[in-house]
Each structure stands twice: as C-alpha cells, then as structure tokens.
Amino acid sequence: MSKSKIGPQTWMFPMPAVLVGATVEEKPNFMTAAWCQIAGHQPPMVAVAINKQRYTLKGIEVKKAFSINIPSTELVKKVDYCGIYSGKRKDKSRMFKVFYGAIETAPLIEECPVNLECELKHILELGSHNLIVGEIIETHVNNDCLTDKTVDIKKIDPLIYIPGTQNYHRLGDDIARAFNVGKE
How far apart are CA 32 and CA 82, in angstroms? Predict the structure, then answer.
C-alpha cells in the first residue's frame, strides 16, 4: 500500500461537535469546539482545546468553570452559528434555554441531550490554543436518551464534525462489540 506524506495535520476522525459554555461578563456564552475529549476516568476529566482569542476562554479563566454540552444533529444550525460568531459581537445568551446545576457559573443547555458541568483544573498553553482540562462534577442526560438507565448513543444522535471536509455528520451503524470482537 502506498501512502502520501501530507505534513502535520490535526485530522482525527471523527470529532464531536460540542458547545462549550462559560459565564462571560455575567452572561452565559457558548462556542462550538471539535477538539474535545475525555481525559481521565478517576476523577472524570475532560479536555478541550480553545483558541487563545476566543471570548469564551476569558469566562473560563475568570470563573474557573465551564460546561460541555453535547448537541443532537437537530441543533446543527445553532451549533454552526456558535462557531461562526463570537460572543464579543453577538449575544448568544438567549439562543438556548439555559439552566445551572451545582456550578452556578457553568451554563448548561437544556436542548442538548447531554451536559457536563466542569471545574477548571489546568490550562496548558499550546501555541495557538490553550488546552483546558476540567473535572466533570456532574453529568446531566435527558431521560428520553436512556435505555435501561444507560446512555443510549442512538437516542442522543450526537453531531459529529469531520475535519478536512468541513462537514457535520451523524454516527453510523454498530460494527462490532468492543472488548469482545478481538477475542475471536
């Protein structure tokens, strides 16, 4: 098999399209991020890379808290809007029904089927972006996205971003059972 060298790229497939929430200048603000991933199990941690120029980053730094909101594919237009327009120029505080959990400065989006409340633990400067690491204090899941008290990814229908193509997608079919198919 032949391969082409294309230089260092940030292409990992797929990437979740999430809405990062923070209180900025005493108002909820949301930005779209695709560079977001679980970073630890005990304690549960999440990491998100945010460009240093982002308005939302200022709120995270000041309030030491943020949220990760997992939108369904139904929210694609609003997710894209939050990635196109800065909260510096557009007030996004009324775009969603906002609620708060244990952390009073981490705005959560009611329309998103999954919400993570996070306390800021670390900021790592990485060139153009800062890696924000937060401890997940609470996870909120819509009741209609549970099957037998377990999160049902098909009911969540999360929005997926594919770098390079700059397109949004949805998850496809199951192909094998994890921690099982490798035993064959």
Answer: 5
Domains defined along the chain, listed by start: 15-183 (2.30.110.10)
Query: Closest Cα partner for 138 from 109, 117, 157?
Result: 117
Strand residues in the chain grouped as ranges (E): 15-16, 18-24, 27-33, 36-40, 45-51, 65-70, 98-99, 108-109, 114-126, 129-141, 146-147, 150-151, 160-162, 167-169
Per-residue pLDDT reduced to its tens digit, 58-78: 999 999 999 999 999 999 999
DSSP-assigned beta bridge partners for residue 135: 45, 119
Return the closest-CA partner of residue 48 out of 21, 14, 28.
Answer: 21
pLDDT, tens digit, for every residue of 72-97? Answer: 999 999 999 999 999 999 999 999 99
- In the structure encoding, which two tokens stand for residue 106, read together? 């981490």
pLDDT tens-place string over residues 12-34: 888 999 999 999 999 999 999 99
**Token pair of 6, please?**
């294309």
CA angle at 41 for the pair 40 and 46, rounded to the nearest 5°: 40
CA dist 64 → 39, 56, 106, 137, 152 (Å): 18, 12, 9, 13, 31
What residue type is assigned to position 170 of the chain? R
pTM above 0.90, yes or no: yes
